[in-house]
Amino acid sequence: MASVFTKIVNGEIPSYKVAESELCYAFLDINPLALGHTLVIPKKEVDYILDLDDELYLELMRFSKQVGKAIEMVVDCKRIGITVIGLEVPHAHVHLIPINQLNDMNFAKPKLNLTTNELEELASEIAIAFAKD
Ligand code: AMP
After folding, report:
1. What separation in Å is there between the alpha carbon of 67 and the centre of ligand 1?
2. 82 CB within 6 A, ligand 1
3. Of ligand 1's atoms, which has the minimum distance to the CA of residue 29?
4. pTM (2 decimals)?
5. Alpha-carbon span 46 to 130, nearest angstrom
6. Cys-Cys link to 12, which of 7, 41, 112, 122 (CB 3.0-4.6 A)?
7. Which positions are catalytic?
8. Reduced DSSP (H G I as helix, E B as strand, rest coil) percent helix, strand, coil of the chain, to 5
9. How far is the CA of 109 from the centre of ligand 1 (A)?
10. Residue ID of nearest Cα to ligand 1 atom 13
11. Is pLDDT of 1 > 90?
12. Which CATH number fits domain 4-132: 3.10.180.10, 2.130.10.10, 2.40.50.140, 3.30.428.10?
């Protein structure tokens, strides 16, 4: 069965899209640790990031860098934290999280409760910053 992220890429379920390239897709995490918490995935469904072929792995990282720069333009933060966990959704993804301190990367923390409007607005601001870059 297709992963939830493949369904997002195929437009079968909605997402707060931030950007896409030929091979990758970026969208807001629906249970964000911080404003602007974004997931970047390869469009091809591969569960474990270390199983990506080198070319796709490098493209995922290149694209994540570009998306991270766009998030920085929109969200006030010291840095964009970059991490891969992948215990919940079996489709490789990079977490891009605006951070100011170490604990901002703590996945055990309660998540933010953002409204649909807030998520739509954030995604659109990041998408605009991405397109300008
Ligand atoms: P993990 O696989 O442990 O890296 O966690 C999966 C992440 O995907 C979590 O942060 C979820 O909030 C996020 N997530 C799960 N389903 C969706 C979805 N439909 N849209 C956006 N983010 C999602």
Report:
1. 17
2. no
3. 22
4. 0.97
5. 25
6. 7
7. 93
8. 40, 20, 45
9. 15
10. 29
11. no
12. 3.30.428.10
